[in-house]
């Protein structure tokens, strides 16, 4: 009887051991085997991510330095806007870059308003074009455009162009020249184009849609470092 009792006690113990070993064996079989290729890809992705974050941190520092030195949109590849734009290319949801671009517009707003107060038409117009190259539809710039336009004299309208934007054939310059067309109506006596090169002058004429055989006013072209379109109105139009 005692032997039978011992055997009965051993049965549950052996059964438990069997189940434990079986389950452990099943778990061991479900573990994925080491994949050298997957491990290498993880390391490469991690390295790439760290390099990108390091690049973004450097770009933000460069952007801040450029902003402090008033290199807002110029020179071409060393300005705050270009640095912030590169950050957004790599990290579209970067709050720092988005706020940085907003700061650029606000800085331009203050500079434009000061130029208007000083009645410096050329400076105000060029600053406005640069600001529009950052964000053409920004609500702060719409009111400023009217303030800048109020500096024009009645008999002679002058539209100064940013030389860097002109040479880059910027869409902002294209849009600006298209808006000048409305002033080339009846009452215009003469249009003077000042530009650094003859190619620039011809390009401006094309954007203004001026046909030498059809217009009722004379067109003068002049070489100069500061490009502009000057429209002289007749006395009847002026009155």
Please provide a written account of the structure.
The chain has a four-stranded mixed sheet with strand order 1-4-2-3. By secondary structure, it is α+β, with helices and mostly antiparallel strands. Strand 2 (188-195), helix 9 (198-208) and strand 3 form a beta-alpha-beta unit. The radius of gyration is 35 Å and the shape is elongated. Helix 2 packs parallel to helix 4, helix 4 runs antiparallel to helix 5 and helix 4 runs parallel beside helix 6 (139-149). The chain is built from ten helices and four strands.
Structural key phrases:
elongated; 4-stranded mixed β-sheet; alpha+beta; 63% helix; 10% strand; 239 residues; 10 helices; disordered N terminus
């Amino acid at each position: 009887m005692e032997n039978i009792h011992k055997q009965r006690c051993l049965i549950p113990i052996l059964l438990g051991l069997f189940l434990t070993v079986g389950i452990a064996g099943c778990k061991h079989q479900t573990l994925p085997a080491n994949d050298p290729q997957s491990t290498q890809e993880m390391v490469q992705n991690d390295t790439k991510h760290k390099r990108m974050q390091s690049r973004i941190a450097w770009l933000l520092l460069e952007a801040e330095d450029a902003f402090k030195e008033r290199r807002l949109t110029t020179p071409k590849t060393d300005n705050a806007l270009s640095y912030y734009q590169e950050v957004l290319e790599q990290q579209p949801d970067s709050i720092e870059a988005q706020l940085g671009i907003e700061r650029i517009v606000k800085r331009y707003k203050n500079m434009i308003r000061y130029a208007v107060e000083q009645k410096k038409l050329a400076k105000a117009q060029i600053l406005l074009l640069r600001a529009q190259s950052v964000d053409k539809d920004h609500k702060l710039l719409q009111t400023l455009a009217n303030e800048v336009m109020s500096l024009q004299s009645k008999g002679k309208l002058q539209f100064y162009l940013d030389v860097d934007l002109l040479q880059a054939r910027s869409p902002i310059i294209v849009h600006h020249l298209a808006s000048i067309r409305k002033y080339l109506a009846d009452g215009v006596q003469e249009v003077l184009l000042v530009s650094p090169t003859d190619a620039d002058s011809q390009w401006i004429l094309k954007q203004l849609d001026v046909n030498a055989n059809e217009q009722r006013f004379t067109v003068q072209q002049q070489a100069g470092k500061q490009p502009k379109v000057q429209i002289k109105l007749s006395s009847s139009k002026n009155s």
